[in-house]
Amino acid sequence: MVTLLAALPIAAILVLMVAARWSAAAAGATAAAGTLVLALTVFGFGGADFPFDPAQGVLGVLARAAWVALTVMLIIGPALGIHHLQQRTGATSALEAGLARITPDPRVAALLIVWFFCLLIEGAAGFGTPVALAAPFLVAAGFRPVTAVVGAMVGHASAVPFAAVGTPTLAQLAIVDVPARELAWAVAPYTAVAGVVLAFVVARLVGTLLPTEGPPWGWMAVAYVAFFVPNLVIARFVGPELPSLVGSIVGAVAFVLVVRWVIRRQARTGALVGGNPAGETLVGEPAPEVAETSAGRPAPSMSFLAATAPYLVLVVLVLVTRLVVPVQDAARSVVWRWEVFGHFSESIEPLYHPGLLLALSFVAGAVWQRAAVGDMGWAFVRATRQVIPVFVALLAMVTVAFAMSESGMTTQLAVAAAGAGALWPVLSPFVGALGTFMTGSATASNILFTEFQDQTALAAELDPVPLLGAQGAGAAIGNIICPHNVVAAAATVGLGGREGQVLRQALPVAAVCLVLIGAMAWVIV
Q1: Cα(136)–Cα(59) distance, integer angstroms
Q2: What is the pLDDT of residues 413-454, one digit of tens each?
Q3: Which residues, in sequence order, are CB contacts of 458 under 8 Å at separation 6+?
Q4: pTM of this prediction?
Q5: Residue 299: pLDDT over 70
Q6: I want to staple 24 with a disulfide (CB 3.0 to 4.6 A). Which of 121, 372, 454, 499 is the partner?
Q7: Exposed/middle/buried for 144, CB within 10 Å: 0-12, 13-18, 19+?
Q8: Alpha-carbon distance 448 to 171, whole Å?
Q9: What share of the chain is helix, strand, coil (3-state, %, to 5)?
């Protein structure tokens, strides 16, 4: 009975958002109120085992939830600002023209965004940055908003176990005594198997751009191999820091080279369909002389390089702050931390946070593109107006997560799952996904449940390393369906109040991936 009550907040969110089609704000607020009631009445929140009284417990949870929601806003706001500025200056049109020069097939160009761009930004920065950047651009490129959000969320998931230069797996290594390369190799094969499903879904979504042509299965297979071959090799022989980052860069270069080679070959044989062979014009040449902006006024011609300026600056800033050790140490030396009631605390590294890097990219991109100050102000105001309502939904969702964690509900669910005995390997990735579902972070999930996975495996006399790998892979898949990730992503394309549509499409994808990972873990163990 206690386990069923512990699962009630999750069930409420799913039923209200998916079945009843409530907005994330309404569903989250209802679930948050119910979770706090359960925490206070059934689970002893603020009781003898807690170092705070009930009022302090509620205030502490709300304070932490508000802080986390604000830090997410710091990512969404500048990302939206970049999108609106790109629309205002005509850079989006220049990007579309530049991608068309790589390939005349918009589906293949879309793969560069949905797959490689999302994987690259996730591997470098993490924290939902790729979805906030990619989803608006995909809408501008012709995707429906729901398709754009689902595509970006599914497209970046393969990079999550080694996101932000390996942070989720490094969090596991800080808890258990396992060699780094051994744990990286324990996670990577699970991700590669789940990646087949993710790639399949990405191809189907990209196929909506040209329904008569259908999904680009062949090109998706090339993209899958181009990313996962270096990803697996680096995980096996180097460690957890670089598989996603280097895999996405190497994969993108290899993919573009294959695309260019095929186009040139088709042009020589006359087999290319779609007019100009597009392979003879180099990326970086000027876009058409005039592009219409979202404001309806003509913008001067812009080179492909200038149009990509905000993204290029972001990639450079992320790589420098993550890979250049002296710069990384300096950026992480500044920490803002707070604590209340001697128990609740949060912190932020402002110079290392993706929000600052996105804001700098916004400014640098505007300068590079010679955008007017008025255009920058317009983009800033429009982005700010969009993110303010999102704060309520995020606050509600994070309140549910923290109330469940502080009161022991999350642990209760995990312990109940561990009672499966020999079937535990099948359920281990679901526990990882549960952690991400509740916290919005694969890293937080790994911190929350890695020790639990390790001890459960030892108690059952099972090899813990494959289960730790399944935990990490499951936590990555949880990113696809985490409510406050869905809220944040939907906000970037104007889907506020319709988050349930995204969740309905994402849930089956996550379920299939988790079943595959669980089956694989059972076979290995």
Answers
A1: 35
A2: 878 877 777 788 998 999 899 888 877 788 878 877 887 888
A3: 464
A4: 0.78
A5: no
A6: 499
A7: middle
A8: 10
A9: 75, 5, 20
